[in-house]
Amino acid sequence: MRDLFLGLDCSTQSLTALLVDYNSGKVIYRYSINFDKDLPHYKTQNGVIILGDSQVIHSYPLMWVEALELLIKRMKNEKIPINKIKAISGSGQQHGTVYLNSKFERTLKELDVKKSLASQLEPTLSRHTSPIWMDSSTTKQCEEIRKNLGGLISTIELLGSNTIERFSGPQIRKFFQEKINDYNNTSIIHLVSSFMASILLGKNAPIDHGDGAGMNLMNIRTKLWDDRALEATAPNLKEKLPSLAHPFTIIGKLSPFFVDKFGFNPDTNLIVWSGDNPNSLIGVGLIERGKVAVSLGTSDTYFGYLHDLYLDFQGEGHVFGAPTGDYMSLICYKNGSLARERIKERFNINWEQFSEILNKSPPGNNGKLMLPYFFPEIVPQVLKPQVYRFGFDENDIEGNVRGIIEAQFLSMKLHSQWIGEKPKEIYATGGASTNKDIIQVLANVFNARVRIFDFTDSAALGAAFRAVKSFYDSEKKIKSWHEIIYNFIDFEKSIMVKPDKKYIELYRDMLDLYKKYEEYILKSGKNPDLSRLGFIKKYF
Ligand code: XUL
After folding, report:
1. CA nearest neighbour of 312 among 361, 378, 257
2. 435 C-beta closer than 6 A to ligand 1
3. Measured between alpha carbons, how far is 375 from 524 in angstroms, rounded to an integer?
4. Which of 81, 319, 392, 531 could hold 396 in an S-S bridge, CB 3.0 to 4.6 Å?
5. Atom 9 (ligand 1) nearest CA
6. What is the rounded CA–CA span in Å between residue 450 and residue 436?
7. Which of 292, 334, 535, 337 is nearest to 438 (CA)?
8. DSSP 3-state assignment of 183?
9. Residue 492 burial by CB count (10 A; 0-12/13-18/19+): exposed, middle or buried?
């Protein structure tokens, strides 16, 4: 008998399913619903809608619901043995909040198989859109909450992060301030992860410590809702939040709706969902120190496993709960793949041509340097998007192609220094990680080996791994994380990109230059053009 496990990932642009077979150690099925293409009636662009200005970015919870039903229908039509699935877990884009009224839980319990999920759940939303992680419109609320908690340092000490525009607490506060009646009509506020889990469970599902830490509402040490943070955010908030749970909690069995409509086994276990970053941590097999992952997706993220709690008092990096029950560090960039695509589209080239051009230009870019804020940036905080180019202009194809890639990795190196330990090895995942030329720049900038994973679904895979672990643990057939990860991932097979030692000094100098330009533009520092000319003289 095969033991099958399903990992789902509700990300910014798509909903993906990965079905894994523990006995063969293989992913046996993958399917992805692309929101823009497969559900065009929502008219999203890259899975989101921009409301008003570029700072207000939302998505549709009903679109995620519709995608879930479409995905499962597809699995059924393709005769995937869904009745053999032992456990399901999932992953959601972090921070996004879903606002539901008092009909939500009752509706979930009384779902009618003859009707669609979306049509039945529509009346249960007290807000039709969800502010998501790309939203940066809550600076005022962040300041108010931070002030109430005693300032930057005490906020970070308490919550593991500064108050951050995209985090759920400031978003909830903004909703309460701007739409008080709708806030009062809201009975429960879910994260994307706990919302999707609730639908599968047929009642309100908890939020795990990984995703909970991205809300500015959870005490990072006790892993409980923090009363001071709740009070500083909005009235009666505690009664509107689901409970918090360990990341390995079995939250119940699959709702009869899915059993009756699609033929799942009524015994299918559901494991609490988590955020995409905590799931990816496990999905790439990061359970030890000295290694970090760089995920090149809609957002670029840099994250690693932390055995002990480590905080960034600059307020840029974050600490979340890890699926192992420990901690993880995370730095998130909004100017990830969308920024790379801007350059690609500007010159009307494909990825192959992008690579060729990247290869043609020398490391150090002849001293051309970019600060790539095509969109408002999270790290460092830039609210008004603007791209700064030093030593070249927007028509210089080589300058721009290498400029964006070097800028992204130099910024990662610069802003990850608070984590202390210098990574010896980087695991690269996400769409752009399959591009070896981009990854060579990453290896050179960090002077570290980079292992490329040949899959891009680390969040869904991590969710499947969590389902495996919790299921076997509950059956008293305990499996270590190491055992599970090595059962599926053949590390020997992954491509390793080695840093080119020739460029160690060049990138050390360029990092220094990059830092100076950031300070010049964002903190009114000294104009470093002279240093750049010195750099050009030294290397070109
Ligand atoms: C992390 C973050 C993003 C989202 C979407 O803090 O905002 O990585 O989780 O991927």
Report:
1. 378
2. no
3. 20
4. 392
5. 94
6. 10
7. 337
8. helix
9. exposed
Per DSSP bridges, beta strands 130-131 and 300-306 are: unpaired
Do the strands 97-100 and 188-191 form a parallel or antiparallel pair, or are they unpaired?
A: antiparallel
Q: How far is the CA of 282 from the centre of ligand 1 (A)?
A: 16
Instruction: Tell me if 132 sits within 8 A of 61, measured CB to CB.
Output: no
Which atom of ligand 1 has the smallest separation from the CA of 275? 9
Pull the structure tokens for residue 141: 């609320």
Q: How many residues does the chain have?
A: 540
Phi and psi dihedrals of 273, rounded to 5? -80, 165
Give the model confidence (pLDDT) of 391-442 as tens digits: 999 999 999 999 999 999 999 999 999 887 789 999 998 888 889 999 999 9
pLDDT tens readout for residues 203-260: 999 999 999 999 999 999 999 999 999 999 999 999 999 999 999 999 999 999 999 9
Placement of tokens 């070109």 in the chain? 540
The residue whose CB lies within 8 Å of the most ligand 1 atoms, and thus the one to mutate among 94, 97, 378, is: 94
Token pair in block for residue 386: 């603007």
Q: How confident is the model at residue 492, as a pLDDT?
A: 87
Query: What is the C-alpha separation between 409 and 387, in angstroms, rounded?
Result: 16
Amino acid letter for position 60: Y
E strands in 97-153: 97-100, 130-131
What tokens does 323 get?
A: 């699926």
- What confidence score (pLDDT) does residue 430 get? 82
Answer for the pair 466, 278: CB distance below 8 angstroms, yes or no: no
The reply to whether ligand 1 has any atom less than 6 angstroms from the CB of 278 is no
Phi, psi dihedrals of residue 51, rounded to the nearest 5°: -105, 120
Nearest to 434 by CA among 299, 327, 297: 297
Q: Are 296 and 312 in contact (CB under 8 A)?
A: no
